[in-house]
Amino acid sequence: MAWSERGRAWGVPWLGLPLSGVLALTGAAHSFWNLPSDAAGTSPARTASRSSTADGAGAAASEVRPPDRAAALRSGQTLGAVLAGLGLTPEQAHEVAAASSLHLDPRQLRQGTPWRAYLDDAGELERFELELAGRGALALARRGDAWQPEWSPFARLTRARAVRGELVGSLEASVVRAGAPPELAYRIAEVLQWDLDFTRDLRRGDEFRVLFEELLIEGEAPRPDRVLAVSYGRADGKRIEAFFFGEGANAGYFDAAGRPLQKMFLRSPLPYSRVTSGFSNRRFHPVLGVFRPHHGVDYGAPTGTPVRVTASGTVVSAAWDGGGGRTVKVRHANGYLTAYLHLSRFAAGVRAGSRVRQGDLIGYVGSTGLATAPHLDYRIQAQGRWIDPLSLKAVPAEPISQHERAAFVARRDAMLASLEDGRSPTAPETRLAAAAAPEAATRPFQGAAAGRKR
User: Fold this and answer.
1) Does residue 300 sit in the same domain as residue 355?
2) Residues 98, 104: Cα–Cα separation, whole Å
3) Do residues 25 and 16 lie in contact, with contact meaning Cβ atoms separated by under 8 Å?
4) Which residues, in sequence order, are CB contacts of 238 under 8 Å at separation 6+?
5) pLDDT for 43
């Protein structure tokens, strides 16, 4: 299958990748690629779930009726308040909440959670249903003096998709133009964060190709899950490639030569931003009105933007630091130290002596200290000397071991073929890695409400 016009998305017509665990497809996902929606526009995931319960649907069909009451949780509204509005006493509402606690925490129900209520001939509640986004449906049915919970997890499927596009405007907009959800842009940034500074390296005309797992949950729009491979071609002719390889704790992303993408430092402490001022030994200070050294890089971003630590290490200080305002300093291996200035506040748990891992949240962009607008002043010190963060070279990492290289090369070539033109992988090790299909459960929200007919 060739690429469609203007980089629109296509479904990859292949069965899997070499080695187990790379592409886990639930159930008979290999026959899922071109599964049509029904006349009502039902998603393939929903269609699969309904077909799996078709045999038992006949008995329940005669019981299908619309709910007597239906709504969604309002802001600040509790489950107890909803049940009280349906005529339950506080003791009865407590019993229903206790029965539901086997599958959810009633205190953590979100605004907008839909519910349905079914009443008996006397107008008393006999069945109550909740639909939890991304998880499943919970029905609570009255059985005498007790309430019986019925939990039905949503059908979940994972399929492989590939998109190809050109950078025009932001990466998010370009990904959407290519036919994928905007969330995929952030997944790409997570994979390439060691080799691309998304605040300054992206250029109009850059070309990207992405192979990723798409998660389909019944009743929801598809959303991107794990990225399997990325090929990013820059306008200057350079190309960055990443391939997911390995299992468990050893899994990660590698370049085409089998070298890990993860480096000691991230290219930027902010995934999306803009450089407003660079490293300089003589810069005019906008507040003090004098020329003085600026030993960092300023990233303009709104107040509250999360700031990530660029390398693993130990927090030296998290405190007010004169003109730097709220500042976090972190000591790293090999004599490096990073500093994050002008923060609006520190992240929870960030204090002197605490350990942080690369990518951890350490604070939020602000304008404390001597600053005219919200921004992050990011600095790096090497062996006691401030250096330009944008000039820091990546430290090479150990490549894939020799005994794993053949498997990596087979997987890399299979994914490259699909990224290039959509062909099925030809590597002899290619096989389907499928998980057992989950046992289907009767869906409460498909109308099986016990009691009188309407």
Assistant:
1) yes
2) 10
3) yes
4) none
5) 34
194, part of any domain: yes
Kind of pairing between the strands at 69-72 and 385-387: unpaired
Half-sphere exposure for 317 (CA within 13 Å, toward CB): 9
CATH of the domain at 412: 3.10.450.350
For residue range 129-143, what is the model confidence (pLDDT) as tens digits? Answer: 998 887 888 999 998
Q: Let me know if residue 133 belongs to a domain.
A: yes
In the numeric block, the tokens 């590597």 are attached to 427
**Per-residue pLDDT tens over the stretch 208-252:** 999 998 888 766 777 888 899 999 998 888 899 999 998 876 788
28 is a domain residue: no
CA 58 – CA 224 distance, rounded (Å): 35
Note whether 297 and 359 are same-domain residues: yes
* Structural domains in the chain (count): 3
Return the SS3 of 408: helix
More confident residue, 392 or 89: 89
Instruction: Please name the residues in contact with 355: beta carbons below 8 A apart, sequence gap of 6 or more.
Output: 312, 313, 314, 315
Confidence band, pLDDT 50/70/90 cuts, at residue 284: low
- Confidence band, pLDDT 50/70/90 cuts, at residue 395: low
Question: In this structure, are 236 and 280 located in the same domain?
Answer: no
Task: Return the structure tokens found at 104.
Answer: 């959810």
Domain range enclosing 310: 274-391
Name every residue whose Cβ is closer than 8 Å to that of residue 356 and which is 6 or more positions away in sequence.
309, 312, 313, 314, 315, 330, 350, 362
Same domain, 380 and 423: no
160 Cβ neighbours under 8 A, 6+ residues apart? 11, 12, 14, 23, 211, 212, 213, 214, 228
Angle CA 8–13–18, to nearest 5: 120
Q: Are residues 241 and 279 in the same domain?
A: no
Domain co-membership, 208 together with 177: yes
Question: What does the block give as tokens for 452?
Answer: 């009188």
Q: Which two tokens stand for residue 385?
A: 């000397």
Distance, CA of 28 to chain centre: 25
Do 323 and 365 fall within a single domain? Answer: yes
Q: Give the model confidence (pLDDT) of 24-42 as tens digits.
A: 333 222 222 222 223 233 3
360 close to 378: Cβ distance less than 8 angstroms: no
pLDDT tens column, 404-438: 999 999 999 989 888 886 544 443 333 323 222 33
Task: Give domain status of residue 23, yes or no.
Answer: no
Spell out the residues 6+ positions from residue 89 whose beta carbon is closer than 8 angstroms to its own: none
| Burial of 84: CB neighbours in 10 Å, binned 0-12, 13-18, 19+ | middle
Claim to verify: residue 162 and residue 140 sit in the same structural domain = no
How many other C-beta atoms can be found within 10 angstroms of the C-beta atom of residue 360?
16
